[in-house]
Queue: 3 jobs
Job 1
Amino acid sequence: MLNPDNNALIAFAQNHLRTSAETKQRYADASAAELVTVARAVADCFLAGGKLMLCGNGGSAADSQHMAAEYTSILSQKFDRRALPALALTTDSSFLTARGNDYGFDSVFSRQVEALGKSGDVLIGSSTSGNSKNVLLAFEVAKRMGLKTVALTGSTGGKMATLVDHCLRVPSDSTAHIQECHIAMGHIIVATVEKLLFNSDGSDRAQR
């Protein structure tokens, strides 16, 4: 029999879930309006013919891919609408390994923003610390090129807090709870974009 005992493991699981829920509750009470502001920026970008780009490292890379898929595929089969142009900058293994091998890892996102971004696009970067160098460099290039910038971070916002147009700070210093909240925030932004762009039958509210 492995230790600790089963009751201790159950208590650990309960505590994690409750703390995660409390983190989301604190964000909901203090900062939910930020999600609507960002959703409006993304919807305006799409209406103007722009695209959304997303980036992050590790779990935040997976989150970026997850959220991009919700736009280009579908958030829910119960609401069928046209595809929306979103791109995760974490998925091209040939580019990532070529750039990383030749120039280092710091420029893997900024180089793609330089190549693919245009004024009016939106870049969302996720970093629990707010200090991930490759995401910071991507934001710097995006700002110079006229993209709207959004950071999803932990409680302090790190260096991103003063660099981006919108810094969405989760009130926690736990990487796990920050990332759990980021996923919920991302889903809310997608769903709100859908409400802004589409009628209840999935048709466009405005002409493309």
Job 2
Amino acid sequence: MGTKTTRLPVDLIETAETEGRAEHRSAAKQLEHWARFGMFFDRQTSESHRRIQRAVAGEASLADLDEDEQLVANAAVNAAISTAANEISFADRLAARGVTTVVMDDEGRMVRRHPDGSTAVL
């Protein structure tokens, strides 16, 4: 296996020396261990993230996810629903169809809202 020289922060090298001694590794081997572990972890979380994204997009089944991934996917779906619900005025949509609705006004009162925009406090 070939090697390349690179610069690393002094504190990282000093920590690798300390940790490496405890694990019977040189500083270089300790840094390599951390790098490989980080690479493995990043690949695992990236793959998990991609599976979750596919499930949330409806391109894969939630059943294909493990329990933790399902929790994250469900949270993502709930957040998306909440965001969409807060951005949509159902009263406006219904008024456009000629339907009278009952809504809360800015003062917290129940009001009847007619399709023409007029309101009446209940």
Job 3
Amino acid sequence: MSKNELAILGLLNERPMYGYQINQEIKERQMDHWAKITLPSIYHSLTKLAESGMVRMETAKVGKMPERRVYSITSKGKAMLADLVEKFLTCKEEPNRPFYLGVAFVCGLSKERTLAALKKRMELLIQHLSDLKGIHDEYKGKIPFNWFMIIEHGLKHLTFEQKLIQRLIQKIESISEWSEATGHKG
């Protein structure tokens, strides 16, 4: 089972929903950014979960709208949700961080391109931080504590990364001979 299944089972544990509704909930909670869950992957996961008996699918008609497939979690799905939550809480793996790989191999870029890339990342980070601060202020006291703690963790993480990038830029700018410092020729 994957993060998609965990997210879908978790949301369906709150209430029955149709696929598009799950997608809207994921977007509202900003999970599309930090959990990287997309609409096609939601429908794919719902099919797998229904086939394995984790969710039940019923059709419902609302007004003049076409029939919708409404999904609800089964007792088997609730047991799987509990197992997945425990597994994810105790996961030993570090998150996938392509940025760290980029930092590790800056010697593959010229000093100018390295600085330009880091400054671009800083701009994106500043925008993301601003957006997240707005979300933090908007949802404070309005969402469950565990969801709010995810937002707070994101703010601290992004703030730390911003300081790291500032230090990295300063260090690189202070290097007079890039090729000697990194072994990069050119």
